[in-house]
Design brief:
Blueprint lengths: L2 E6 L7 H13 L4 E6 L21 H12 L2 E7 L7 H10 L6 E2 L8 E2 L5 E7 L4 H6 L4 H14 L2 E8 L7 H16 L3
Parallel strand pairs: 1-2, 1-3, 3-6, 6-7
Antiparallel strand pairs: 4-5
Length: 191
């Protein structure tokens, strides 16, 4: 039994990402302990006006976000591609919560920080309005690079898989049913 955190990174109150997150949570709950976060439900100031020079006290929703990350063994991020990468509110949550001392720590004299969230795995489920092959191979797959390399790996979280669904904009009920079934299969394979 694993501790699984499902993050719906789409801030909209209703979306395909939210449906996929609910499907994943519903199926994974049969075998695992699962928590779900909907970024749109969180209340916090997105901007990191002082960078990391001055740490601003975290709002209760971000404290809870950090606690759930620390609790988890496997993190599932379900995100749409907006302007090539993740939505601003999700990026704001990362900026505000993945702080020095929480997700990484610099040591004197070393330029590469210690990864404080080691021992966790992740998987990415990405929705987009362009064909996945176009986004990945022509547009450069920025969301994957940002999440896997710049955020997850930097913090010590090992990404194990990435799944893409699209184009969403022209999808129909049958497409979405296939995608929901695929997400159920992903949730069933957690060990």
């Amino acid at each position: 039994m694993k501790k699984v955190l499902v993050i719906n990174a789409n801030p909209k109150p209703t979306s395909l990402c939210k449906s996929l997150a609910e499907q994943y949570t519903s199926v994974a709950t049969d075998k695992h302990s699962v928590e779900q976060i909907n970024i749109g439900d969180l209340n916090f100031a997105i901007s990191l006006d002082e960078g990391y020079d001055k740490i601003i006290a975290l709002e209760p929703d971000l404290v809870d976000f950090q606690k759930k990350i620390q609790w988890s063994e496997h993190v599932v991020i379900i995100s749409p591609v907006w302007w090539g990468t993740i939505p601003a509110k999700f990026k704001g949550a990362i900026d505000r919560a993945f702080l020095p001392g929480f997700s990484f720590k610099y040591a004197d004299g070393k330029s590469i920080p210690e990864k404080l969230l080691k021992g966790r795995t992740s998987e990415l489920i990405i929705t987009l309005d362009t064909p996945p092959f176009w986004y990945k191979y022509v547009k450069g797959n920025a969301i994957y690079k940002q999440l896997k390399h710049s955020i997850l790996d930097f913090s010590g979280i090992k990404n194990t898989s990435s799944t893409y669904f699209g184009p969403v904009i022209n999808s129909n009920r049958d497409n979405r049913k296939v995608w929901l079934n695929k997400v159920a299969a992903l949730a069933n394979r957690i060990k």
